[in-house]
Predict the structure.
Amino acid sequence: MFDSLKDKLQSVFTGLGKRGALSDSDVDAALREVRLALLDADVAVPVVKQFMDSIREKAVGAAVLKSVRPDQQVIKIVNDGLTEILGGDATPLMVDVTPPAVILMAGLQGSGKTTTAGKLAQFLKTKHRKKVMLASLDMTRPAAREQLRMLGEQAEVGVLPEDDKQTPTQLAKRALQSAQLQGYDVLILDTAGRQSIDDGLMSELSEIKALSKPSETLLVADALTGQDAVNTATAFQSRIGITGIILTRLDGDARGGAALSMRHITGCPIKFAGVGEKLDALEAFDPARMAGRILDMGDVVALVEKAAEAIEEEEAMRMAQRMAKGKFDLNDFLTQLRQLKKMGGLGGLLGLLPGVGKLNKQLAAAGVDDSMIKRQEAIILSMTKKERVSVALLNASRRKRIAAGSGTSVQEVNRVVKQYQDMARMMKKMGNKAGAAGLKAMLGGGSPLGAPADAGMDLEAMAKQFGSAKGGGLSNFGKMPNLGGLPPGINPNRKK
Amino acid sequence: MSWLRQLTQGLKKSSASATSHLTGIFTGQKINADTMESLEEALISADLGVAASSKIVQSLAKKYDGKSGDQDALLESLSEAIEQILTPYQKILSVSDNNHPHIMLLVGVNGSGKTTTAGKLAQRFSKQGKKVVLVAADTFRAAAIEQLKGWAQRTSVDLISADRGADPAALVYQAIEKAKIQQADLVLIDTAGRLQNRVELMDELAKIVRVIKKLEPDAPHDSLIVLDGTVGQNAISQLKAFQQVSPISGLIMTKLDGSARGGALVALAEEFQLPIHLIGVGETAEDLQDFNASAYARILLGLPPKNRE
């Protein structure tokens, strides 16, 4: 899905990639192309306008990050903007209310309401273990009622028996009663397809909503929709009030601009995506992934991460150089702690180690856990800049101040300082003696899990290991020189 | 003329929305690049697509650049430009007496309105005195067969159907054989909706076409794609994909009674140069109207119909 927009934007950015530095006119040209691509993707004109405004604002303010290619920078900005429109975090369906929770389905003719009602019933039954009843209130199209009955049978959920003589509101009342009496958890009301401008049907729908008090009112919309998505979304939102959107036919090749438009206009989250005809072809809608898919060259999120990684690599390179020169201060120590935290903390890291279960328990018994890293971080942060560069400054009164500032004890401060000093000594030794070779052994071979040390590994490769949280399995362990794989500062022997 | 009135009624909401976009643009001021940009955006908002919109606006810009704004004249020109694009493709759908029977195949994505259109067409041609055989070759969608049964009963045409899940190609084969024996004039085949990127479903359609050709090498005499009026630029992708399976002979656009403006038709006409036969502007069979370029263009822009048209 969204492939075509992806292609478009990709071609825009390929153009940028070749140019290197991004000038103002480059940004303008890029955004013009992005605008066209979005319009071509059926994103509604007013939505595109607002989007471009917000992007320009961000692009103009933001400096191109060092070591990130300008096109990557633009990708990140556009990607973030798209993610924002698509809605940030997905919200789950509200069905855990006093039963029966009512879900009201609304939408234009042919948007896929009835099929989606069936899918939703199946989803709630299998994934949420709910007892679900389907009821069709579509009195204008007998075949729709027939269809819902068949879908209900397929999904093996309850279906309200039909009654040709009742009006939709009467049917809704009867459905509520039956669902209550028969102990259903969820009642899904499928309504007649309507044009958004059909006053009669719209007021009927709002009447049904008033009497059934649904916990979710879902607008079912077709991903193939063009500019009319705005009208539809506006009409249903203002006349009925909706709580969420289900986008159907996302398995098609539509660029899906309607998703952006509707999300933006209604402010309601897109909760599900219909991705096929079968009953189980309903997926939770993931805005971040969707934004990624819109832009992506392979996978934009990965690309953005890569860009960020590039910065980290540079950082790591600098650090490796410092270490090689025997320079290693508390700031570097702090960086290491933070990287460790980012990698999922000690627990996450140890979890990756085979046969570490026992060690894990021992560590826990020794009080070594992630909260320790946090405390160590706090301790370093409570030091002045000067103190961080030159530990010699730390006399007793300074240490007391630091302990108070970080909410720890002087003993703990002492421990951090000692651990740092141990590490620094080791760095120096290696820096002086074998230089990179020593580090190499430490980084590669020293790691119990990392690939065997490559004799030809140079500083740069080393830096890569630092920078990449993923590269080479647990090569990151090399960052923690003492204890052959345990993070710096974590000394199991400290409790004697 | 009654059809025009109906068309006007059906489309008036569409045009109301287009007009509201347009009227704000011109009032009194000089026509400049901004005017043209707004105009282009208004056309894009009507689903004409970027390419068609900018082409139309550029042709206007040449004429009006620097002149002071006369909204009516500008809108007239715009309507003429759209009419000019569409007129060559205005073509009435008819059943030829040379074919025994004439075979019409309806294709399109899900929910575009194929089944309803099939029913309406059955009624239309049966009223014209043709003997119609309606084929419910959508054996996938729950209740598609029931829906056509309703139409068949109302219009008293023959309906040929099979159980759900049956092979649609086999059903089509039987239906054509039967129609030949019955000496029917028209075989109207409703197919299941399919998204154009679903290879296995497109293969299924290709098989239906192969089977038709086995019995009637020249058929299908009409391969009609049914498009939803709300469709955006994906219509182009739809047409391209369906073309590959069964060369499309004409377009039908449904559901133009909503707020959708169906401007995708202009984009399609530009790109594929295919006849536009019918537009659907309401629920009843009479609401399936022969396409008229002039009326459509004027109503799209919110202009009153020309006299005596």
User: Anything to note?
Assistant: The interface with chain A takes residues 13, 17, 41, 44-47, 49-50, 109-113, 140-144, 146-147, 150, 195-198, 228-234, 237, 255, 257-261, 263-264 of chain B (CB under 8 Å). Residues 1-7 of chain B have pLDDT under 50 and may be disordered.
